[in-house]
């Protein structure tokens, strides 16, 4: 079996990309030296020096961006125009397909130009749903934030605005990519996903497609990490909260500020909120920080992008993990917190209700409801036995959900079902 994986994030060139891509690498490692299976990996990269590399039964094909210039200041032009790719990128992808000749194309995510592969080939394409930009676009701006607001916030971050990386330009790119997604999704015959939300949305936009449930592998370090343990005398006067979110307008930083402004802490209790993935100079901070309460007993700390080991340590030393997003499917950050056992509180959006069972493997709160979020934080703090109960359930459920051997078996079963279905379809056409 020959399978071509397509990913928008760098897989082989580990110096080019974001820490979060590691779960795809972990999934790929399941098939290293796997008998009778050859895997090609076409990965998007801005590095012009990347070359085709063969490693055991893997072949890595860099999809070099045709919009990346050696003279870096020119890179602002496509960002200002709201484009990420062009026809040469698609032709590069088509050439790789013709060279590798896969039996199946396995596409990670419908957000990037890789989704256009359905227009380039008759080879069966299965899309592993990550997020879907059509509903994401509707949640791009939180309540009380207008297009004018994000334009002004971009002007405050002069460098980000000049480079075309501010929310104002990102929203424009979101709209273009969502339109492409809407055109291509009806042509996709096969989807993989893991939540009721992605099943429902793919069925909405591609009603004739087949959907297969498949969980995801976590970054390898989490499988060996020690678990969260509640220690009553560790920090009795401090509630340590952690969130892992990106510098995006819809990731809920404003909800964190709102919660901190209204939470009524018991006497002599402090709240320390660590935020991984955002720096204090990021646009989300300048856009939402005016909602900050500046209370002496509350501190919000921006840790920026942290490596896996640091994140694991922070999760183990925190009392609660909070995911405040306005839209999401099944974010790996929540899955990772559950695997460690850090009690999770998350907004009930997108596919999160499929991975967080309310009052059992976490707590669900409505989006943009700082009052309920504050209540849930205090509830866990005042009732630590509830936090311990949730932690134990999380660890059990996450261990089963992210079992690598089960995922490997299920993935191979899906591949074989798709190939069998293609054979039957072709036979029907011949008849």
Report the strand count: 14
The first-level CATH class of the largest domain is given as Alpha Beta
Low-pLDDT windows of residues = 16-20
Ends distance? 26 Å
What percentage of amino acids are in beta strands? 15-25%
Q: What's the architecture of the largest domain in CATH terms? A: 3-Layer(aba) Sandwich
Structural class: alpha/beta
User: In angstroms, what is the radius of gyration?
Assistant: 22 Å
Mean pLDDT: 90
Major sheet: size, sense and barrel closure? 8 strands, mixed
Defining traits:
431 residues; alpha/beta; Rossmann fold; eight-stranded mixed β-sheet; six-stranded parallel β-sheet; 17% strand; globular
Task: Outline the fold blueprint.
Layout: E1 2-7, H1 22-29, E2 38-45, E3 53-55, E4 58-64, H2 76-81, H3 87-100, E5 104-108, E6 125-128, H4 133-138, H5 147-156, H6 158-162, H7 167-184, E7 190-193, H8 196-205, E8 210-213, E9 238-244, H9 253-262, E10 270-276, H10 283-288, E11 298-304, H11 308-317, E12 320-323, H12 332-340, E13 344-347, H13 352-355, E14 363-365, H14 370-382, H15 384-401, H16 404-430
Helix pairs in contact: 9-14, 12-15, 14-15
């Amino acid at each position: 079996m020959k399978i071509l994986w397509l990913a928008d994030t760098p897989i082989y060139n580990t110096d080019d990309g974001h820490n979060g891509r590691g779960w795809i690498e972990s999934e790929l490692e399941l098939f290293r030296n796997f008998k009778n299976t050859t895997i090609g990996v076409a990965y998007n990269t801005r590095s012009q020096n990347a070359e085709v590399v063969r490693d055991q039964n893997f072949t890595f094909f860099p999809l070099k961006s045709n919009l990346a210039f050696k003279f870096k200041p020119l890179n602002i032009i496509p960002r200002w125009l709201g484009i990420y790719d062009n026809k040469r990128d698609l032709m590069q992808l088509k050439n790789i397909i013709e060279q590798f000749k896969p039996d199946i194309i396995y596409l990670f995510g419908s957000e990037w130009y890789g989704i256009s592969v359905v227009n380039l080939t008759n080879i069966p394409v299965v899309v592993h749903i990550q997020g879907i930009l059509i509903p994401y676009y509707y949640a791009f701006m939180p309540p009380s934030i207008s297009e004018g607001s994000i334009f002004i916030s971009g002007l405050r971050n002069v460098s980000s605005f000049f480079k075309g990386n501010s929310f104002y330009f990102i929203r424009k790119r979101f709209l273009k990519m969502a339109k492409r997604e809407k055109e291509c999704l009806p042509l996709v015959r096969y989807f993989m996903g893991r939540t009721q939300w992605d099943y429902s949305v793919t069925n909405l936009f591609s009603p004739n497609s087949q959907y297969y449930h498949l969980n995801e592998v976590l970054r390898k370090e989490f499988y060996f990490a020690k678990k969260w343990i509640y220690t009553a005398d560790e920090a009795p006067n401090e509630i340590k909260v952690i969130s892992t979110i990106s510098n995006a307008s819809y990731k809920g930083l404003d909800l964190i500020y709102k919660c901190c402004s209204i939470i009524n802490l018991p006497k002599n209790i402090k709240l320390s909120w660590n935020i991984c993935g955002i720096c204090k100079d990021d646009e989300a901070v300048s856009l939402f920080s005016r909602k900050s309460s500046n209370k002496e007993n509350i501190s919000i700390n921006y840790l920026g992008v942290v490596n896996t080991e640091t994140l694991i340590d922070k999760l183990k030393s925190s009392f609660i993990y909070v995911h405040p997003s306005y839209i999401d499917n099944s974010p790996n950050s929540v899955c990772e917190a559950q695997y460690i056992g850090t009690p999770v509180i998350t907004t009930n959006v997108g596919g999160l209700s499929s991975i967080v069972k309310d009052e059992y493997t976490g707590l669900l709160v409505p989006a943009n409801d700082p009052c309920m979020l504050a209540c849930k934080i205090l509830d866990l703090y005042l009732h630590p036995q509830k936090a311990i109960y949730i932690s134990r359930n999380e660890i059990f459920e996450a261990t089963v959900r992210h079992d690598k051997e089960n995922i490997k078996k299920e993935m191979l079963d899906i591949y074989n079902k798709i190939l069998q279905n293609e054979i039957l379809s072709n036979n029907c056409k011949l008849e």
